[in-house]
Amino acid sequence: MLWIRTEKEIRYNSFEDQLLIREHDIDPDKKKVALRQISYGLYIVSSEHDKVIGADTVNWLSQASFDPPLIMVAIKADSNLHTATKGSGSFAVNILSSSQKDLAQDFFRPTSAEGSKLNGHSFRKETTGSPILEEVYAYAECKVVGEIALGDHTIFAGEVIEAEHIREDQPLEMTATGWYYGG
Q: In this structure, are 7 and 25 located in the same domain?
C-alpha cells in the first residue's frame, strides 16, 4: 500500500494493478526535520526581461541531464526572478564559493539595480543577457526548455548554453551557513 497525503481516499483501478491511496496526516515537525536533511548548495540565480531584473539566492537547484546539459531550479512563483525567467526564457546560475555567505545573504531581499550593480554587487551580461555577478567563481547560462508549476514554486529546466569556471574554489553549502530553507 502506498501512503500519500490526499484530501480523501482515492481508488484507481487498471487491468494490471490496483492502487489504494489513503489520507495520511504527516507530523509537521517530523516532516520539517526530515526534509532539512536533504543537502543543498547555495546559488544566486538571475534573469532580466523588459527592465525587470530578478536575482535571488536559491538552493533548490541541480544538474538534471548530461546530454544535453540541463539544470533544474525551483523559483518562487511570486518573485521578480520568476517574472524575468518566464519572460526572457533564460537564467544564469551564479555559483557561490564557500566564503561568500554574505553575498548569498545580500540576495535574500528584493533586487535593486543601480547602473552595473545588483544589490551593491557588480555584474556583467554575456550570452543570455542574464546578470552574472563579477564575484562568483563559476557560472552557467541557461535557455529554458521546460517548466512545471507546482505549489508555490515553478521548476524551470534550462539547457546550459554557456558556462565558465573562473577560478578554483569550493561551493557554498547550506549546512555551512546554519540557515534552513525546506521542510
A: yes
Please check whether residues 70 and 3 belong to one and the same domain: no
**CB-based contact 156:130 (threshold 8 Å):** no
pLDDT of residue 26: 80
* pLDDT tens-place string over residues 108-133: 999 999 999 999 999 999 999 999 99
**45 and 29 assigned to the same domain:** no
Structural domain for 59, as ranges: 40-177
Residue 3 buriedness (CB in 10 A; 0-12 / 13-18 / 19+): exposed
Tens digit of each residue's pLDDT (9 = 90 or more) over 1-32: 344 444 444 444 443 444 444 456 788 888 88
CA gap 176, 74 in Å, rounded: 21
2-3, strands of its sheet edge to edge: 2-3, 18-22, 10-13
For residue 37, give the C-alpha cell: 536533511
17, 89: one domain: no
What's the pTM?
A: 0.83
